[in-house]
Amino acid sequence: QVQLVESGGGTVQSGGSLRLSCAGSGFIFGNYDMTWVRQAPGKGPEWISRISKGGVTMVYDDSVRGRFTISRDNAKSTVYLQMNSLKPEDTALYYCVRVDPQRTWRFLPSRDNWGQGTQVTVSS
Predict the structure, then answer these.
(1) Phi, psi (rounded to 5 degrees) for 87
(2) What percent of the chain has pLDDT over 70?
(3) Are the beta carbons of 114 and 4 closer than 8 angstroms?
(4) Is 34 helix (H, G, I), strand (E, B) or coil?
(5) pLDDT class for 8, splitting at 50, 70, 90?
(6) Across the beta sheet with 118-123, what order do the strands follow?
(7) Separation CA 59–CA 79 (nearest Å)
(8) Who's near 123: CB < 8 A, 6+ residues apart?
């Protein structure tokens, strides 16, 4: 049974930082790319970053490039999202998603490949 469990969310002031973690189990973590997606209230899912299965290639949406850093530790079956210089518009529920490495970079699979999410709230 695939499980993805996010943690590290919280409330922070504008300009602050948070580090999200996502622990995977029930599958071979190192065989999959991992993506972070966020969803703000009343809006659709927004793809923000992805890291290749070996951790060599990382891609970012323009909205977070230069402020967010994705990384992974396959020995711990964990992917991270370091978020710096946070803005109120970063407020959302953040999900980690496992992705077939052969899929295009912004591909989002079915919800059974998603975690339950962790809430990030940035106050102005």
Answers:
(1) -120, 155
(2) 100
(3) yes
(4) strand
(5) very high
(6) 10-13, 118-123, 92-99, 33-39, 46-51, 58-60
(7) 14
(8) 11, 12, 13, 14, 88
Question: Residue range 33-59: average pLDDT?
Answer: 97
Take residue 24 and report the two structure tokens written for it.
């995977």
- What is the identity of the amino acid at 79? V
Tokens of 64: 């977070």
17 Cβ partners below 8 Å, 6+ apart?
82, 83, 84, 85, 86
Asked if residues 40 and 57 have their Cβ atoms less than 8 Å apart, the reply is no
Identify any residues that bridge with 80 across adjacent strands, giving them in sequence order: 21, 71
Amino acid at 58: M
Strand order in the sheet with 18-25: 3-7, 18-25, 78-83, 68-73
